[in-house]
Design a protein that fits this description.
With about 300 residues, the chain is an all-alpha fold. About 70% of the residues lie in helices and about 0% in strands. It has 15 helices and no strands. It has helices at about 5-10, 30-55, 60-65, 75-85, 85-120, 125-135, 145-155, 160-185, 190-195, 200-210, 215-230, 235-240, 245-255, 260-280, 285-295. Helix 2 (about 30-55) crosses helix 14, helix 8 (about 160-185) runs antiparallel to helix 11 (about 215-230) and helix 13 runs antiparallel to helix 14. The longest helix is centred in the middle third of the chain and has 34 residues, at about 85-120.
Amino acid sequence: MTATALITTTPPDEPLLKPGRKPKEKLPWGSPVVYFIALVVIAVILVPVAYIILGGFRTNAQITADPSGLPSPWNFGNYLDVLTGSMFWRQVLNSAIAALSTTAGAVILGLMASYVLARYRFRGRGALYAMFAAGLMFPITVAITPLYIVVRDLGLMNSLPGIILPQIAFALPTTIIILVPFLKAIPDEIEEAAFIDGASRIGFFWRMVIPLALPGVITTGILAFIGSWNSYLLPLFILNNEATYTLPLGVQAFSSQYSVDTARVLAFTSLSMIPALVFFSLFERRIVGGLTGAVKG
């Protein structure tokens, strides 16, 4: 049979399949109850966010007359007042410095500790790894009083290093738990070949380990950044000077200062949510991919 005859005799709605390849089966739609529950959960999450954002475009009189109504007319003055003020941008800068410093410290220290736990054989390695794993069950709420005393004794009160150093310490367990499987999955043959080519342990670490573990490094960096950006309890205890406030703490202070100006408070709150929402939305796939790789490893 010629190719022309095969093409003419094949129905147009049945594509040609390669030998040995099975046609793709369509996935079932699932139960409507599952979709209904999912829509309800999405509504519960998005409705408060939408209310805060739209509330910033309203006046206090509109909110008092109809709390659940839409802006009519739209008032951009609340957002302009927040964006043109120095308080908001100073707090954004403080949050960015704290988050970036925490991310860098947690990733660098966590990667080095994970490399030792994953690639070296020594007595007590399992106990050390178990200690870091136990750190996941030790929230900062439990340690806030000892942390306050330590930070005060070190003279780091009312300073960004006073919140950066504890945040690095509390980000290390998550970083190590995620990175150790990545580093264990690196074949020993690659390490042996690198040593034969004259690479040192440090050279193997920088040239081979970091590129191969890059998905896990990105994931841990994103988690550390978001955790530091949204941190509230630690800055609340450590920072008492308004010039050093981070954004979550600034929202609370702004709400207390302008408690009667509800529309302006909603505008400030919605603007403070945007950086974290945008950052998480952009890197969501990186987080899922990194965690999946860690589980496979």
